[in-house]
Amino acid sequence: MSYWAVVVKQLNTRTISCWSEKEAKKVLGTSIQYSPDSLRWGLLHTKIEAVKVRTVTADKFRGENSSPSVNGSQIDFQPIGIKAVRTTQVTIQHPDADITRTTVEFPGDEVLFKTPNRIVFSLCNPYFEAKRVDGKVVSEAVKKELAGK
To answer: Model confidence over 17-74: pLDDT tens digits?
Structure first.
């Protein structure tokens, strides 16, 4: 099992989001847990149907995630803190999620490796950075989430 805790940091990007700032802030400080057959975000979990791993270059990432219009979302490795010209991208296929009624994404279902112990993911276009932690830290984060519900 692999544990991650979302750092208290939303990355500064120029993207158009389907979430409000208030919704995006709810992701900060929450936990993501990966196991061979499921993905858990806080108290929600989903079944993993398939996993794709690929190497993505900075140019490929920009082309796949930026709008062709200068007025649309523009994203590349620089604002999300990836200094390499290529990195590993992991995409987890799962049943559609209905977290905010605006997206079928699940936090952490598509990640870029910033370093071996840090990942970057987008959820409805805001980008977040998470770091690897041990299970005890995640348990404390889940307790905090339960207390806040």
So the answer is: 566 778 778 888 888 888 889 998 878 888 999 999 999 999 999 999 887 887 777 8
Residue 134: left if φ>0, alpha if ψ -120 to 50, beta else—which one? beta
Instruction: For 115-147, give one letter per residue: b (16+ CB within 10 A) or e.
Output: eeebbbbbbbbbbbbbbebeeeebeebbeebee
89, 56 in Cβ contact below 8 A? yes
- pTM, two decimals, is 0.79
Max CA separation in the chain (angstroms): 45
Domain that holds residue 61: 2-148
Looking at the structure of the chain, the number of domains it has is 1
